[in-house]
Design a protein that fits this description.
7 helices; elongated; 5-stranded antiparallel sheet; alpha+beta; 239 residues
Length: 239
Amino acid sequence: MLFKRTNIEEKLSLLTQKEEAQVNLIKNVYALLQKDSENEERIHQKLAGGQKGIANNFDFDLLETNKIYHIDQIKQICIDYRLRFLDSKYFKGEIPQEGISRIKALERSHRISIEGFKIIAPSKLFRLEDKDDPLLFAPIGNDYFYLIHRWGNDLHPLRKVFAWPFKNIVNLTAIVLMIAYLITLMVPEGLFSKSSSQAEFWIVYFFMFKSIASVVIFYGFALGKNFNPAIWNSKYFNA
């Protein structure tokens, strides 16, 4: 006989085995997805919680050294660019999926559960109590932090320039003096008297300085503004 007879029992048995294998595969995939979903939920809870004094037990051999920063370096950047460095629970934006995936990958490779997340971002991206470019960090101990993920757009190239007057009272006074001087130069000669003089220039300059300084002081007090060194790690709107 050229062709072997078909054993239906064998075919049924093979089909059953295939179906069982498929069911097991589906179960395994579901279990993996369920575990991954539980991991994501746990990470989101950690991001929303925020804990003090946490030091994650990273494997330093696996860390990228160019992503390790000391608190003094972070403070300097925040002051220069008028940013805040706060617990992730105050962040009102959404952590991108890429950031969550990065956390999961770190947890798998280091075999730890990461806690104590911190974020660098402009004030407007935080839920501050009055009670453009976020960076997600995790503490590694001794005031060092590991950069996990950065997302969003880069900061405006002139942000550091705009933030300079708010670094301290000296910078702010200097910028007010400069603006008052420029405005005084634009005042037409002989506007207040027939003959312009050096004394008249300085009287107008003093008047302009007082006017601009009054506006700046009113703006600062009315909106609860403060200098960069005072707000870089403050959770309060009117720090």
